[in-house]
Structure formats: C-alpha cells, structure tokens
Design brief:
This protein is mainly beta. It has helices at residues 9-19, 249-263, 332-336, 362-365, and strands at residues 37-41, 43-44, 46-55, 72-77, 82-89, 92-99, 105-111, 117-120, 123-126, 131-139, 142-150, 158-170, 177-180, 183-186, 196-202, 207-210, 218-228, 237-246, 280-282, 290-291, 296-297, 299-307, 325-328, 341-348, 354-361.
C-alpha cells in the first residue's frame, strides 16, 4: 500500500499509532531448582586430557558456575585399564599424556565427593588427519583466519577445531623512570620490562565442519574467526594455534545442536538445552540429567603468525591512547606512593636537574597489568 498524502499530519498520526500498538513482551523466567552436572572436555588420545566438571545455574546468575570439586575422575577401557585424572583447580581434572589405543573403546567415569556416580558410553578413538593449511587474508577491514584439512583415507568426515590466540601489545607510554623507596631513579636493563607484553585467549565458540555431502573427505578454507583491523590483537604481532579433532557422527550432531543453542539463544524457536542428547549417564539416579558429550580423538595442531607490517598500509591499526599528567618534585610522594600513577619522563627547567615528571595511570605504562612480559617459548 502506498501512502500518497505523506504531508498530512493525520496520516502520520495513524502511522505512529499503528507502529506503537504492539507492546513489548517480556516473558517471566521461572527459577529452576535443577543443578545439572556439566562435563566439559574430551579424551585426548595422544596428549594432555583436561576435563572440567561444573554445575548448571539459573540464567539470572551473574557469577561463575560452581565447580564440582574433590571428585574422582577416571578414564576406563573396555578391557579394564584405568587412568586417573588429577584435580588442578576449579573443577578441572587432567592427565598429562594419555596414550589411547584405536583398537579399543574408552569411557569417562566420575564419582563426586557426595558419592554420586556418572559414566559416559564407551566411545571409539578417532584419528584426526593432519591439518593441511592454516592461512589468513586481509580483506573487508578484517584479518580472516582459515583452516583446511583432508583425509586421504576418507574416514573422518566430521571435524572440530579449537584455537589459542596470543598477541604482542604495547602500552601508550614508555616509562624511563621508576618510583622506588620514596625516590625516583632511572630504569635499568635489569629491571622488569613493562612496555611490551603478550596476552592469550582461548576459543569459546563451537567450530565444526562436515564433508559428508562432498565428493571427497576435505574441508577447504573453513573460516575460524575474523579480527577487526583496529583490534589490539593485530596491532603488533599475532599468533594462532589451531587444534583439530576428528568426531563421530553422534558427537558432531551433539555439537551442532550445542552450536545452535549458544549462537541463537533467546529466540522462541531455539532448541532447549534439555534437548541435547548426552552420552553421559548418572549411575546413581537414572532420571538425573547430565550435560556434556565425551569423545576420544587424537589432536593435530598448526601455528601461524600475522605481522602488522604485512597488513594493508591504509589500515589505521590500533594504538593505545592515554592522558598524560604532570607531577612536580614537591608532590612526588603524594602522587606516586600508591603505585596507581607511574612516572614516564623527566621535566626540565633552567637547571640540569628535573623539576618534575610526566606520569600516567599504571595500565597506560605497565603492560603487566593486562598481560605477561614473559616471551612465549614459541614466539618468533
């Protein structure tokens, strides 16, 4: 329908009333008394295995979910072999180097400190093919990371990826001086460096791919993530370690449903978390729901670097900005004693000695507030 008389104020009033006649609806969220066990992780058949046990909580909760601590966590094989995992903190249980055979099946067994027992189904050990390639492209104002893989034996079909990001960053100001024991002194080569540091971040999204509908068991240029050009991550040097796993069809379908839950949460037509089909059961109470899915697979990895000098020259890369302050000599103790303000450089007058110092808030000067000044062993 065309509205021809758009200058008529009556027409505009009708349009306004029509557009405002639907009141927003905010459904009431009922509190749940459920306290489901949530099992995160997988059985790494050729390396470190880490399993985290948490408890579900209401959507209204803002604190981190409670951890299931002091549990007994064991990997069991069908032929009776047992490998215990050791608790390392916040409901996390690890084994430093599992070596699982592809000729047998394994399950995860859990016994909580309250005596409740849980176990996964026995699952086969999948072997991941090597990662064919990890590459990046600078396009549309983003650094886009892609992964490719192929199984020449045509046995994988279902893939999962995780990644660890590490990047180098700098502070807004380079500090030449240190306030120490009530005095200002110059920084020395042996002092802990605070201008350039590194940060790390693990992936949180579910990244999966399938070649079932393709003519060959190959995934080409699956986009893992995109980084905006003005992100701190690519302001100096960036690295990503991509981890690849092979999945069974059942594990893939579980993760596919989980991906829909996590990416589309909040709409009326999304599947509920209770619709996720877990392969973990309560041995103590068959009616108790458990959230999670245990897979067993080898892991393949590949690391690449992105140097900011290789990015398009017309990109205005991120650079930290902070306010600079001035502290005169008669205010040194008052301004610097708490440590929240850090001297940057000297201010000189007509005499050879400084009459004061420029200064900035610690996060603007000390990179260890946000990262580590220990260079990663893999850094190039």
């Amino acid at each position: 329908m065309k509205i021809r008389n758009w200058k008529n104020p009556i027409v505009w009033l009708v349009m306004l009333l029509v557009s405002g006649c639907v009141e927003p609806y905010f459904p009431e969220v009922k509190e749940s008394t459920s306290n489901f066990l949530v099992v995160n992780g997988f059985l790494n058949a050729n390396g470190r295995t880490s399993i985290q046990l948490l408890r579900s909580q209401s959507l209204n909760e803002t604190e981190a979910p409670p951890a299931e601590e002091s549990a007994t966590v064991v990997v069991e094989s069908e032929n009776g072999e047992r490998y215990g995992l050791h608790e390392t903190g916040y409901g996390t249980y690890t084994h430093p180097n599992l070596q699982l055979s592809t000729d047998t099946k394994y399950r995860l067994y859990i016994r909580t400190k309250n005596g409740n027992e849980y176990a996964s189904d026995f699952v086969e050990v999948k072997t991941s093919p090597v990662i064919e390639d990890v590459n990046w492209k600078a396009e549309d104002g983003e650094v886009k990371i892609y992964v490719s893989s192929q199984d020449l034996n045509n046995k994988t079909h279902y893939y999962k990826w995780e990644y660890e990001q590490t990047w180098q960053f700098r502070t807004a100001f380079y500090s030449v001086f240190i306030y120490e024991n009530g005095q200002i002194r110059q920084r020395l080569p042996d002092d802990s460096p605070i201008y350039v540091c590194w940060k790390s971040e693990n992936s949180t999204r579910v990244e999966i791919g399938s070649s079932v509908k393709l003519s060959e068991d190959r995934i080409s240029n699956y986009r893992l993530l995109s980084i905006p050009y003005n992100s701190e991550k690519v302001s100096m040097k960036y690295s990503i370690l991509v981890k690849q796993y092979a999945l069974t069809r059942e594990a893939y379908e579980y993760l596919e449903m989980l991906k829909k839950n996590t990416e589309n949460i909040g709409t009326l037509f999304d599947p509920l978390p209770s619709q996720l089909t877990s392969n973990i059961r309560s041995l103590s109470n068959p009616d108790e729901k458990v959230i999670g899915y245990i897979s067993a697979t080898t892991m393949e990895t590949k690391r690449i670097f992105v140097d900011s000098r290789d990015l398009p020259r017309d990109w205005r890369l991120y650079y930290p900005t902070c306010e600079i302050d001035t502290v005169m000599n008669n205010m040194l103790h008052e301004r610097f004693e708490g440590g929240s303000l850090v001297p940057v450089d000297a201010i000189y007058g007509s005499t050879p000695d400084p009459i004061g110092y420029t200064a900035a808030a610690r996060p603007c000067v000390d990179c260890t507030v946000q990262g580590t000044n220990v260079k990663p062993a893999f850094w190039e």
